[in-house]
Amino acid sequence: MELFFRKYGETGAQPLIILHGLFGLSDNWVTYARRIAMEGFEVYVLDQRNHGQSPHSPVFNYLALTSDLADFIEDHEIKDPIILGHSMGGKVAMRYALENPELVKRLVIVDIGVKAYPPRTQHIEIIKAMRQIHLEKAKSRHDVERQLKPLIPQVRIRQFVLKNIYRDDQQQLKWRLNVDGIEPNLNDMMDSIDFDQQYDRPTIFIRGGASDYILPSDYGSLRMNFPHAEIITIEGASHWVHVEAWERFYQITFGFMTGNPSWYRGV
Fold it and tell me: Which tens digits make up the pLDDT trace of 138-193?
């Protein structure tokens, strides 16, 4: 599958691949990618299958997503990349690194662990809300937001979902997200990573202190697969730690990616 991607930075610099989470898209990471590209990185921000401008498919599981990433790296002849993944993207990054430990220079995992997760009510509610929106009656993004507001009262989540709105060639409002491909496979997105292999290179897990995706009780299982993992908590941040604590997240990731020994100071 040929994935859509955005590229920033100078060709030949240290490659960095960014993988968004469920219901996300590459556009969510543009500000981060542009900033870090100016620091000497060649940044690739991907739309994963069924998201953004990448192709749609009824097949939607971590095996397929990891295969997409492997094909992308091979097709673009990317050598020794750093891979950063949030949530679903983090699980794809971990699977790829465990399968190909010699091909990944460093790993940045944002608020996701290797364990299986129970179904998330929020994911189900987002799908239900999207299905209830009458896009054919909406003339603008504001019209869509007005329909979404009683269904998704949280402003941050609503704005996140609205990123998926676009106009097709007939200027009709559409969802970029392939709801029909994702909904029947939601349980597969909760799967654990069951690998005996280890990734021995530098790894960092960044968790939100107000999130339950990585708990202190999970640290042991993380280090079974990633023995050199650093686990950093940004207090007060939720699952969208990279949005809610933008500057701190940037400083931690930049320091880690560049191998700066003082990257953890003040955290």
Answer: 999 999 999 999 999 999 899 999 999 999 999 999 999 999 999 999 999 999 99
What is the tens place of the pLDDT at every residue in 82-94? 999 999 999 999 9
Helix residue ranges per DSSP H, the chain: 30-37, 62-75, 88-99, 121-132, 141-148, 155-162, 179-182, 219-225, 241-244, 246-258
What's the predicted TM-score (pTM) here? 0.95
Q: Which of 26, 54, 87, 211 is catalytic?
A: 87
Architecture label for domain 5-116+192-258: 3-Layer(aba) Sandwich (3.40)
| Catalytic annotation, pick one of 51, 86, 239, 242 | 239
What gap in Å lies between CA 173 and CA 167, rounded to an integer? Answer: 5
Partners of 191 in beta bridges: none
123 is catalytic: no
Residue 20 bears catalytic tag:
no
Domain ranges of the chain: 5-116+192-258, 121-185
Helix, strand and coil percent figures for the chain, each rounded to 5: 40, 15, 40
**Active-site residue 76, yes or no?**
no
Choose among 21, 245, 233, 226: nearest CA to 106: 226
Give the angle 205-19-207 at the CA atoms, nearest 5°.
25
